[in-house]
Structure formats: structure tokens, C-alpha cells
Please model this.
Amino acid sequence: MGKVKSFTILYDRAVDNNVPMYTSGECLSGRIVLEVEAQIEVKALKIHAKGQAYVHWTERHSSGSKSTTRHYTQQIRYFKHKYLLIGIDGSEQITVLPPGRHEYPFSLVLPQTPLPASFKGVHGNVSYWMTAKLHRPWKLRSKVKEMFTVYEQIDINTPLLLLPQIATGEKTLCCCCCASGPISLNAKIERKGYVSGESIQIFAEIENHSSRTVVPTAAIYKTQTFHARGKIKVTRELITKLQGEPLLAGKTETWNGMQLKIPQVSPTLMNCTIIQVEYSLRVYTEIPGATNLTVDFPIVIGTIPLHPFSTQATNFNTQYGMNYSNLNNTLPEGFEGKSDFSVHQPESGLPDLGNEKP
Model:
């Protein structure tokens, strides 16, 4: 980098080099720090802030003897903002910086519109970052990039997430044209919303009137759904699993608050139209030689735990503009939330600088 000793982005909220965390509508602030060993000439110092969701995967398609690879890509930009710290847009004016350390504070208000949380998956991600670019005459451009994390406050103390869930199922096994008695499953959980580290209490009754031994089981699954060019890619991951005692033919088993602990997992991903991260509880009976009898409960992993006065909670849909059941396959147009840089110039005698056009 020639006479440039260091070129960094420092976020005010970063502690011990950890990636700082923000939520929608908050002010992201920090400093661009430029250390030079000797006097340098600068054409421009630019900063960019970006937020986007990005999906990509490939598939092999064969037609006769030919095989091709198709790329499926989709992107939504939530904001992109630029600002000039040194220089004037369209001007060849040169600024001379003396040796030493130069700091350029900045602040950026993130869009008030709910932003999806930062996320990294197998086929896509939701990312937020800031880039600083230093332009000098007759020198290669210097560039530095630093990520920041956006999180969502998901309050499980809301009417929709406090509703109990009930499901029933029945299955009759057939063998050599002879049908045995049915296997029935009735299950209930107290609510839809939980946080990591909590235990789900499962109430269930399994009646085994078949001739086989079955195993009552409960499991939590994480499902990631990616959308691109009208196609969908789904990945499913087992998070944790609990098995009961084998249930002999003609017997009945009752779970009166069987507890399945939720490990540390990322919250449910809201407000993103091309990536969904959902969780579900599956209660089922494992049946040797046959498909399992299953019932599924969609659950939401939040960030604000249950409190004793849950009736005082505000409606999550109203507060965050998200319908939990609205995880469809449509791809509405992306949006760019309104946010603006507010840059504080250091007292270095430099003139006030105008905004760079996007």
C-alpha cells in the first residue's frame, strides 16, 4: 500500500474485535482510520454501506448425451448508500494528507422497515457490510470491508405464539391382505413460540392396536428454503431427538409433559422473501417395516423469552409486519429502505463535502 501503514473500519459498538450487532432503525456509527507514514495525495475516500439477501445454487440437467449446468440466482437489496469523505464527485481535486493518523467519523441510520436477520446458509445468505475505498493518483485503489450483524427481536409473548397446538393421526397396517388394528397418536404442545435453551413439554397418547412394537419419538427439525428464478431448494436438518420406551402390541403410552430441550440455534428468519428458516416439532411412532405415523407442529424460535405477564405483550405481526404463515413461493419486488449517512468531518481544515451520487 505504499506509504499507507493501515486502513481500517472501526465500529463504535464492536467489542474485542467481535462483529457488532444492530437492529432495524438503529444508528450504526464508527470511524474510518487511515495511518500514513509519509505525506500522500488522495483523490477520494469513499464509504459504502450495503445490505442484501442472496441465493445461488446449481443443478445438472441432461438431454440425450448432453449435460449442462444451470445456475439459479436471486438477490434482494435492502439498502445501498455511498458517501464521500474526501474529494468531490466528478472532480480531479487532490487532497494532501500529512503523516500520521487520520480519523473520519460516520453514522448511518438503518432502515426502519424490518430487516431480516443476518444469516448464512447452504445456498444463500443475508449479509450486511461496509466498504471503504481509498483512491490515489497513479496508485491501485485500496479497499477494506467489514461486516456487521443485524438481528431481529422476536417476542414470543404474543397471542399467536402463545396458542396451544393439537394434532391427531391414525394408521392401519396391512400384511398379506389382513389388516391389523390401528395405531393412533394424539399430541399437544402448550404454545408455538419458544427460545433456545427452553424445553418443549409434549403431551401425547399413543395407542398401539397393531401387531407390531412401535417406538414413540419426538424430534425438532430446521428447514431452510431458498427461492430463485421460480425454483425452490429445500434443506432439512435434524436438530435434536428424543425416544420413548418401545410400545408393545395392544399397549398404550402416555406422555404427560415429556420435555424436549431446544439446543442453541439461530432464531426463525423473518421478513425475507427469498430465504426462510423455519423450525418444526415432529411427534411420531417408528414402525418397523412401514412408514411412520407422524404429526407436525410448526414452532417459532424467538429472542425474547416468555414472561409471567404475557397478556401485556404487543401483537408481533403489527410490530414487525410479518405473518408467520406467509411463507409462500412468491417473490415480490425487493425494496431499498430509506437510510442516510451522517458524516462528521474532523477538524482538519478540509472543506465540507457533498454526498456522492449513488
In short: The chain has a mean pLDDT of 86.
